[in-house]
Amino acid sequence: MQGMNDEPARWTQATVYPDMWADPDDDPRNRDSSSPDGERATLRDFLTDYRITLRMKCEGLDAEQLARRSVPPSTMSLLGLLRHLAEVERDWRNWISDGEPLPKLYGARDADFHGAVADQSVVDAAYADLEREQAAMDVALAGFPDLGERVGKDEMAIRELMVHMIDEYARHCGHADLLRECVDGRVGQ
Q1: Is residue 129 part of a domain?
Q2: How far, in Å, CA of 80 to CA of 111, rounded?
Q3: Could you give the number of structural domains in the chain?
Q4: Which site in 26, 82, 95, 116 is 20 to 30 Å from 17, CA atoms measured?
Q5: pLDDT at residue number 4
Q6: Long-range contacts of 73-76 (CB under 8 A, 24+ apart)
Q7: TM spans, by residue (predicted)?
Q8: Mind giving me the DSSP string for 107-150?
């Protein structure tokens, strides 16, 4: 329901903890009550949870809502974030490779955001790109069991790369919180 100032009313699906996005039993991030053992498992767990959080923030929206630039003058949209993070996942693989860099998915700088248009085929492609690039990055990371191993042209430590990935997702999940609230009023962590 829109108010007098055209801002959507704030709401959440959560009933157990009203400041949450979903109830604990419905939250796919609540896979296990125990915390992971070890540094690598902890980093993977945080990265996985942020990847899931981004998808959760986009759930239930149509192509127009996903493409809406709801926080002007920013060019960001939830669809743009999906496309951007697919591009970033690909770029991170370039960081750990000694070979020729993979080409950009969407072209020139900021094309990931500018090309985020309200078309279901663009939405479907963004989800497919993100899933494919995440899976490819996971396979690439699995090839480096030592977090201290330095790889790529810049000799970046795998640990540093994983922390950077978590940082990128965390920052953009914060953006997704604001974008989603402006689209339909849904709030929660």
Answers
A1: yes
A2: 9
A3: 1
A4: 82
A5: 47
A6: 75/110, 75/113, 75/114, 76/113, 76/175, 76/179
A7: none
A8: -STTHHHHT--S-HHHHHHHHHHHHHHHHHHHHHHHT---TT-E
**In-domain check, residue 4:** no
Cis peptide leading into residue 36 (ω within 30°): no
Q: What is the pLDDT of residue 45?
A: 95
The CA distances from residue 12 to 31, 66, 140, in Å, are 21, 18, 37
Name the CA dihedral angle for 53, 116, 65, 13, rounded to a multiple of 10 degrees. Answer: 0
The pTM score is 0.92
Q: Tokens 């750990």 identify what position?
A: 96
- Rounded Cα distance between 103 and 122, Å, is 19
What DSSP character marks residue 189?
Answer: -
Structure tokens belonging to residue 170: 């965390």
- Examine residue 107 and state whether it is found in any structural domain, yes or no: yes
- For residue 85, the one-letter residue type is L
CATH of residue 168 = 1.20.120.450
What is the mean pLDDT, run by run of 10 residues, along the chain of 189 residues?
A: 68 87 85 83 96 97 97 94 97 90 89 94 98 97 96 93 97 96 92
Query: Contacts from 103-108 at CB under 8 Å and sequence distance 24+?
Result: 105/129, 105/133
Where do we find the tokens 């990055």?
Answer: 137
Q: In this structure, what token pair is assigned to residue 159?
A: 């640990």
